[in-house]
Amino acid sequence: MDTGTVVAAEQVRQVMEILAITYRGRGSVELGEPYRVLVSTVISQRTREEQTTAVSERVFAQYPDIDALAAADEQHLYRLLAGSEYREVKAPRLIAMAKILQQKYAGRVPDDIDALLELPGIGRKTANCVLIYAFNREAICVDTHMHKITNRLGWVRTSNPTQTEIALQKVMPRDLWAGSNRLFLQHGRAICLSGAPPLCSRCPIRPWCDYGQATRAARY
Ligand code: SF4
Predict the structure, then answer these.
(1) Same structural domain for residues 45 and 126?
(2) Which of 11, 59, 114, 131 is the most exposed, having the fewest neighbouring CB atoms within 10 Å of its CB?
(3) 108, 136 Cβ separation under 8 angstroms
């Protein structure tokens, strides 16, 4: 399968500058304490942002650090997670994760992607988000929005987010990596939709988009 990239870095920068202007103030990277970033990122999996914030605050009020979470009662944590999808899976995983952090990492969140990927329930998207938001590292956090939009743009030709992450590393300037997820998340929610046709006629980056140009041509 061709997972190569098909766009120049200058064009990537130009498009992302337009997205940054379009979603000004809604695409910034906010750094946080590693424990909170890790736990809230797990809570956010398949869960809306408003719910994630409310549930995370509830969990942190009861379990403010790794030691507290490692000693948590699973049923109590399950109840606190109400509003987060798949809480029956997340509750035992969060406790198991905290125990591993206690035993293997002296109660700290590791700043290494391989170590993060060994934790229960942590995939590449979550691990990269933790590296970005907890440790200010250069990483690309590819979610379904970013995977979809970069394929529609024609920047990559990939079939899953991991392939997209690797392909984007070759064309996206490194200084744009960390903030890219927030921009594409905003664009995916507002215009480049998933459950309905993308709103290409309202899209500020349509001139640079393969899909947008193809659908425009098909109408004439
Ligand atoms: S032109 Fe259409 S497909 Fe391309 S990024 Fe914009 S909304 Fe998405």
Answers:
(1) yes
(2) 114
(3) no
Side chain identity at residue 168, one-letter code: L
Measured in angstroms, how far is the CA atom of residue 186 from the centroid of ligand 1?
A: 13
Q: Residue 121 corresponds to which amino acid? A: G
Let me know how long the chain is. 220
Three-state SS for 5? Answer: strand
Number of independent structural domains in the chain: 2
Could you tell me the distance, in angstroms and rounded to a whole number, from the CA of residue 198 to the centre of ligand 1? 6
Which of 148, 203, 208, 210 is the best mutation target for the ligand 1 pocket, counting ligand atoms within 8 Å of the beta carbon and taking the most? Answer: 203
Percent of the chain with pLDDT over 70: 93
Question: Which residue range is the domain that position 146 belongs to?
Answer: 9-27+141-218
Q: Is 121 found in the same domain as 160?
A: no
Examine the domain organization and report whether 113 and 45 are in the same domain: yes
| Greater model confidence, 5 or 98 | 98
Q: Please name which of 132, 136, 116, 133 lies closest in space to residue 124, comparing C-alpha atoms.
A: 116
